[in-house]
Write a structure and sequence with these properties.
With 474 residues, this protein is of the alpha+beta class. Helix content is 38%, strand content 21%. It contains 13 helices and 18 strands. The strands form five sheets. It has a six-stranded antiparallel β-sheet. Strands 14-13-16-17 form a four-stranded antiparallel β-sheet, with no helix packed on it. A hairpin with a 5-residue loop joins β3 and β4. α3 runs antiparallel to α6, α6 packs across α8 and α12 runs antiparallel to α13. The protein is globular and about 60 Å long. The two termini are 20 Å apart. About 12% of the residues have low confidence.
Length: 474
C-alpha cells in the first residue's frame, strides 16, 4: 500500500492493537508538500461496530479542539471501508521517555511541560470534553518545546457521560481518579487527578500507585490518601508538594476546580521552564530517538518515485493505542496478579449460594414441623424478612464494590498472519487468522499452525483492559 486517498504513505511509524500510524505526505500544485501523520484503523477490526464507533468518536471530539497544546486533527477519511485520521506530524519525544531521561527531579522542566498539558486539557474541558486517559504516555513534547495532549480515543462529552456503564473502566488504572474507578460521573477534576499523578511520579522518580494486583491499586486510590511527595523527595518545596497533594485529593471537591487553576498554582510555586528551555531539553535528552526519526524521514521523503511502505519499515512494538511518536510505546506494566480478585468473586458467589441453601432448608423444616392448622409465631415472618433483606443488602454492597474490577480479569488479543493459520491459546482453538479474542489476564502459550503442519509458538502475556497484538510470519 503506497497511497491512502490523496495522501502518499511514506513509512510506518507505529502499530498498536487498534490502529497503525504512518508518516504521509500531501502534495499539490507548484511543488507544495506537507508531512502529516495518519492514524488508520487496522482493517481486520473495521467490521467491529463498537471499535469503529470509538475511532470515529475520537475524530469527532478532536475536530472540536484547536489549541497549541492539543494534537491537531485535520481530517477524517475512509478508504476501502476503513476509517483513518489525518493529524499534524509531531517531531519530538513522549513525556514518558523524556521524564525518564531528565536529570533527577528537574522541577522547572516538569512544571513547564505539565502546566502546558493542563492548559490543553482546560481547552478540552471548556468544550465539554474530559480526556479520561491522561498518563505520561499520552503527553508529547516537541522539538519546539511545546507539550501536547494526545489520544482522545476514550474521551467523552460531559453531557453524554453521566455515569459510565456498570463494570466498565476506561483508562490506565494507576492514573485513574477514585470517582472514575468507582464508575461515578467524571469532570475536569478527574483529569486534574491524573495530571497530579504524572507530576508526583516525575518528581519522585517512581510509580505512585503500584501493587501486586489490580485490586490493591484500586484500594490504594479509592481508600487511602496519596503519600506526600516530601516523603520521597525531602528537598521538594513544601508549597509544591501541597499543590500536587491537592490535585491528588480523593474528594473531587477538594481538588483544583480546573486544569487551568492547577497550571497556575504549579507555575506560581515551582517556577517553570520556558518553551525554549524545554526545546533544549528535548534535543539534549532525546537526541538518539530524534536522530533515528530524522534518518527515517529523510530516507522516506527522498524516494519520491518509490515511496516506502509499511512492509519495508522494521516492526514496531505494539501498544494499547497508537500515539504520535517515533514508536508506539507500551504502557508501563508492573507485576500484577488477579488471583485475589478471582478469589473474592468466587467467595462472594459461594457465600450467596450457601446462604440461599440454608434459608431454603430452614423454611422447609419450619413448614414441615408445623401442624397443618398451627399458627406461625408472630415474629417469624418479619424476622425472616429482615434477615433476607440484610443478606441482600450485604451481597449488593459486595457486588457494587467488585463490579468495576471484574473486567480487569480480561484482556484482548489480536493475531495477524500473511497467510491463514489456525491459532491456539493454551491448546484452545481461537480460529483462523485474523483473530480477535478475549482471554484471561496472565501468561498464555500461543501457537499458530499452518495447513502444511508447520507451527510457531510463543509465550505471551495478556494485560488487563489492553489489546495485545501478535504477528506471525511464514
Amino acid at each position: 500500500m503506497t497511497a491512502l486517498g490523496r495522501y502518499e504513505l511514506l513509512a510506518e511509524l507505529g502499530r498498536g492493537g487498534m490502529a497503525e500510524l504512518h508518516l504521509a505526505r500531501l502534495t499539490g500544485a507548484g511543488g507544495f508538500a506537507k508531512l502529516v501523520a495518519i492514524k488508520r484503523m487496522l482493517p481486520h477490526l473495521a467490521h467491529d461496530r463498537q471499535l469503529t464507533e470509538m475511532f470515529l468518536t475520537e475524530a469527532r471530539l478532536a475536530a472540536r479542539l484547536s489549541h497549541p497544546n492539543v494534537c491537531q486533527v485535520f481530517e477524517l477519511g475512509e478508504a476501502d471501508n476503513v476509517p483513518f485520521l489525518v493529524m499534524e506530524y509531531l517531531d519530538g519525544v513522549g513525556w514518558d521517555a523524556l521524564s525518564a531521561a531528565l536529570p533527577a527531579r528537574d522541577l522547572r522542566l516538569a512544571a513547564g511541560a505539565l502546566a502546558q498539558a493542563a492548559e490543553g486539557l482546560h481547552h478540552a474541558h471548556a468544550a465539554g470534553i474530559v480526556h479520561r486517559d491522561i498518563s505520561p504516555h499520552n503527553l508529547f513534547v516537541t522539538v519546539d518545546g511545546v507539550c501536547k495532549v494526545l489520544d482522545f480515543g476514550v474521551a467523552k462529552l460531559v453531557t453524554e457521560l453521566g455515569k459510565t456503564q456498570p463494570g466498565v473502566l476506561v483508562g490506565k488504572v494507576p492514573y485513574m481518579a477514585p470517582e472514575q474507578l468507582r464508575g461515578d460521573a467524571v469532570d475536569a477534576r478527574t483529569d486534574v487527578f491524573s495530571l497530579g499523578v504524572c507530576a508526583w511520579e516525575a518528581l519522585a522518580g517512581e510509580r505512585l500507585y503500584d501493587g501486586p494486583s489490580e485490586l490493591a491499586i484500586y484500594q490504594a486510590i479509592t481508600e487511602r490518601d496519596a503519600p506526600s511527595l516530601l516523603g520521597r523527595w525531602s528537598a521538594c518545596p513544601p508549597a509544591v508538594a501541597q499543590v500536587i497533594a491537592r490535585a491528588l485529593e480523593r474528594d473531587p471537591a477538594r481538588r483544583h476546580a480546573s486544569a487551568q487553576a492547577f497550571a497556575d498554582e504549579l507555575r506560581g510555586h515551582a517556577g517553570f521552564a520556558s518553551p525554549g528551555e524545554l526545546a533544549t531539553a528535548v534535543r539534549t535528552y532525546g537526541a538518539a530517538p530524534l536522530a533515528e526519526r530524522a534518518r527515517l524521514v529523510t530516507a522516506a521523503t527522498a524516494r519520491e518515485n518509490a515511496p516506502l511502505t509499511a512492509a519495508t519499515v522494521r516492526d514496531k512494538p505494539p501498544s494499547e493505542s497508537v500515539h504520535l511518536r517515533e514508536t508506539a510505546v507500551p504502557v508501563a506494566r508492573p507485576r500484577r496478579r488477579t488471583g485475589l480478585l478471582v478469589a473474592l468473586l468466587a467467595g462472594a458467589a459461594a457465600i450467596a449460594a450457601t446462604l440461599a441453601v440454608v434459608l431454603v432448608l430452614v423454611l422447609g423444616r419450619s413448614h414441615a414441623a408445623a401442624p397443618p392448622d398451627a399458627a406461625a409465631p408472630p415474629d417469624a415472618a418479619p424476622g425472616l424478612a429482615t434477615g433476607i433483606r440484610t443478606l441482600g443488602e450485604g451481597l449488593q454492597h459486595l457486588h457494587d464494590t467488585l463490579a468495576p474490577l471484574q473486567q480487569l480479569r480480561l484482556g484482548q488479543l489480536a493475531v495477524e498472519s500473511p497467510v491463514a493459520v489456525t491459532v491456539y491459546a493454551d491448546d484452545d482453538s481461537l480460529g483462523a487468522t485474523p483473530v480477535h479474542a478475549e482471554l484471561q489476564v496472565g501468561h498464555h502459550m500461543l501457537r499458530a499452525v499452518h495447513a502444511d503442519g508447520r507451527e510457531q509458538a510463543r509465550d505471551i502475556i495478556i494485560y488487563p483492559q489492553q489489546l495485545t497484538t501478535e504477528r506471525f510470519s511464514w
